Amino acid sequence: MQHVLLRVVVSLALIAPMCASNNKAWSQEGAAPAAKSEKPSLFKRLLIDTAVEATVNAAESAARRNASRNSAKPTPTTKPAGAKCLEIKLDRELKSVVVKESPPIRLARGTQKTMEDIVRVKHSVTISKGWHVEAEVRAKAEAAWASLEASVRGGIERSTSKTYGTETERKRSVTLQGDGVSAVKVLWVEYFRTGMATLAVDGQTLEVPFEFREDFDLLTTEAGAAGELVRTWSDVTGQYAVQATLVDVKNGHVRLRKNDERIVAVPLEVLSDADRRYVTDKTHAADQATP
Question: Which end of the chain is more exposed for a tag (fewer CB within 10 A), N or C?
Fold first, then answer.
């Protein structure tokens, strides 16, 4: 439709001077032209059509060039002003997360089996998922995190006296010994360094919990035994954690055996979502194994 209107406008612009010239000639002679209707000659019509087509093509080419230049311009990105990492504090113990486990494996007495795997560990630093804070504060921290991740990683390296690349290839293996009775599972476990980053964002100081994926390993646990695996248990805030094994669940409390052999009882409702799912899976498996 725009092309049609453009052609009409151009045609009128080219014909108007011709009409004005004829009117001027009539006024000078003082009499109207002959009564017969004069039509533009074929040659004139060809000239008009050619001029219209050239003008329209030029306008369309200009529009395409403008559109191409606009699309080629990079989209401006906004970066939080005054974002800075002030301090890094690491937790003393590593956080372990079971990411996969094998089906139960039972070997004949006197036999053994070696299982191995190669995993590329991406050493990423992320804001802890369990960080419970106002949506506005979390959004501000996440917006600044991309520009501060290198600073947080540098603080971790200084604290651990280690240098981490973007990712590391890890080869791990575990050997199972058969006794003809017990069944075991192989666990794929990822280890995280956790801590707190003090950030200054737009004049505001934020305490942001983070997780740094550090390593990977293969472990074994007795199939069906709830208390064989030592793992990191944390609360819903992600600020408190302990290395312990699961003993049992009674009256809405989870009993955990810490590394120093002390047993503590923790309300199930204060545990993290991952820990509650772990307890549910273990108790469900124990119920099914009970005749």
Answer: C
Instruction: Output the CA–CA distances (angstroms, integers) from residue 213 to 1, 160, 258, 280, in the order listed.
Output: 59, 14, 24, 26
CB 82 within 8 A of CB 200: yes
Task: Give the residue with greater pLDDT, 173 vs 17.
Answer: 173
Q: pLDDT for 169-179, tens place per residue?
A: 999 998 888 88
Widest CA span in the chain = 128
Distance, in Å, from the CA atom of 151 to the CA atom of 196, rounded to the nearest integer, reads 13
Q: Are 99 and 121 in contact (CB under 8 A)?
A: no
Count of alpha carbons within 13 angstroms of residue 17, beta-carbon side: 5
Domains of the chain from N-terminus onward: 79-223 (2.170.15), 224-291 (2.30.30.700)
This prediction's pTM: 0.51
For residues 38 and 125, give the distance between their C-alpha atoms in angstroms, rounded to a whole number.
Answer: 84
CB-side neighbour CA atoms (13 Å) of 13? 10
As given in the structure block, the two tokens for residue 255 are: 């009993």
Count Cβ atoms below 10 Å from residue 245 Cβ, excluding itself: 19
Q: Which residues contact 148 (CB under 8 A, 6 or more apart)?
A: 83, 84, 85, 197, 199
Q: Which amino acid would we find at residue 280?
A: T
Place of tokens 């191409």: 68
Here the tokens at position 288 are 């099914």
Residue 80 burial (CB count, 10 A) = 16
User: Residue 218 carries which DSSP code?
Assistant: E
Token digits for 159? 């604290």
Q: Are 125 and 152 in contact (CB under 8 A)?
A: yes
Contacts of 52 (CB under 8 A, 6+ apart): 7, 10, 11, 14
